[in-house]
Design goal:
PAS_fold_3, Rev_trsase/Diguanyl_cyclase, binds guanosine-5'-triphosphate, 21% strand, Diguanylate cyclase, Biofilm_reg_signaling, 345 residues, 5-stranded mixed beta sheet, 5-stranded antiparallel beta sheet, Alpha-Beta Plaits, alpha+beta, 3 domains
Length: 345
């Protein structure tokens, strides 16, 4: 091989240089593309990071709001596991039941339900696993001091897959007491405190309904009407008459059995519903009541002695309804009245 001429070697190194430069340009282009792709990726990561940060802030905000609502709510709120263990309760819940913060978390929901309300409460809660969306029910729930409060519960079914139950409760003890008081006023006679005519009708209807279902659930009805009560008012005044009515009511109330229902129908008329009493029992009851009424009543200035006419009717499924039965008792009472105070069946 001969040595290259200078012009030949120059041309070669120029080609190499051009090739070298072309390679570098390509590399630079590649690098450029890489850099811009990295830039895009970094940009994307920034965006993801930003949206994650935003999401996290939202979650944080929701958690804080939930906590605030949970603790500031005046309603009693609780979260329990589906097995009934308290998981979280709010201040209102603890306060209403007299427990210190966190103290209730050692209890199960059913630990504090009144024994008489347990079965019904269990039935209500069971409905949630039987496809019912939300249950609402009342029960008596134990306060730390041992007394029971009436609570109204609203519990939606747990979210599928969740092992928690959410419940809202309201203390309705006062409302219940008011309702009971209103019912008492509506069903009792203001002067004597005995059940009134409205309650008597309710009891009579209920006794008849029981008799229709179970023919052995017979009962007796005694209708009492004081004899010559009007002259007491006329001689001694209306207030003295009231005293007599009250005294007689107390005596009759003291002689009756716990299951008997004694009512003042109005004026000087009384009624006694005696479940399970037959003719002999009814006679004995009537005699006992009459004896109590015949005892003198001290009205301050004088002693008042009264008598009573009593009509007795014995219920049987042969009566078409309570009205027909009451009519028979009424007629018996008027017969007694005509016979001057004897009892009549
Ligand atoms: N003091 C008082 N009197 C009442 C009350 N409600 C009704 N009376 C009176 O009770 C009397 C009842 O009337 P009657 O049953 O006809 O009087 P009575 O003298 O017992 O008549 P007999 O049953 O036929 O013997 C009336 O004078 C009513 O004004 C009340 O709340 N207080």
């Amino acid at each position: 091989m001969g040595k290259l001429e200078p012009s030949q070697s120059e041309a070669l190194s120029l080609r190499e240089l051009v090739e070298h430069l072309r390679c570098r340009a390509e590399n630079l282009e590649l690098l450029d593309r890489l850099v811009s792709s990295f830039k895009q990726e970094v940009e994307h990561h920034h965006q993801v990071a930003d949206s994650l940060k935003h999401g996290l802030q939202l979650v944080q905000q929701i958690v804080e709001e939930r906590e605030a609502f949970f603790n500031l709510s005046l309603d009693m709120l609780c979260i329990a596991t589906t097995s009934g263990q308290f998981h979280k309760v709010n201040h209102a819940f603890e306060q209403a039941l007299g427990y210190a913060p966190g103290e209730l978390l050692t209890y199960k929901f059913f630990d504090l339900v009144h024994p008489d309300d347990l079965e019904r409460t269990q039935q209500e809660v069971n409905k949630l696993s039987e496809g019912i969306d939300t249950v609402s029910f009342d029960n008596r729930y134990q306060h730390k001091n041992g007394e029971y409060r009436w609570l109204n519960w609203t519990t939606p079914a747990p979210i599928p897959g969740s092992s928690f139950l959410y419940a809202v409760a309201r203390d309705i003890t006062l409302q219940r007491q008011r309702d009971a008081h209103t019912l008492f006023l509506a069903s009792h006679d203001a002067l004597t405190g005995l059940a009134n005519r409205w309650r008597f009708n309710e009891e009579l209807e209920a006794s008849f309904a029981r008799l229709k279902r179970h023919t052995d659930k017979t009962f007796a009805l005694l209708l009492l009407d004081l004899d010559k009560f009007k002259p007491v008012n006329d001689h001694y005044g209306h207030q003295a008459g009231d005293l007599v009515l009250k005294a007689i009511s107390q005596r009759l109330n003291a002689t009756k059995r716990e299951t008997d229902v004694l009512c003042r129908l109005g004026g000087d008329e009384f009624a006694l519903l005696a479940p399970g009493a037959d003719a002999t029992d009814a006679d004995l009851i009537a005699q006992r009541m009459r004896k109590e009424i015949q005892r003198p009543v001290d009205i301050g200035d004088a002693d008042v002695t009264l008598d009573v006419s009593i009509g007795i009717a014995l219920a049987s499924e042969n009566f078409s309804d309570a009205g027909a039965f009451l009519k028979v008792a009424d007629e018996a009472m008027y017969t007694a009245k005509r016979n001057k105070g004897n009892c009549a069946h």
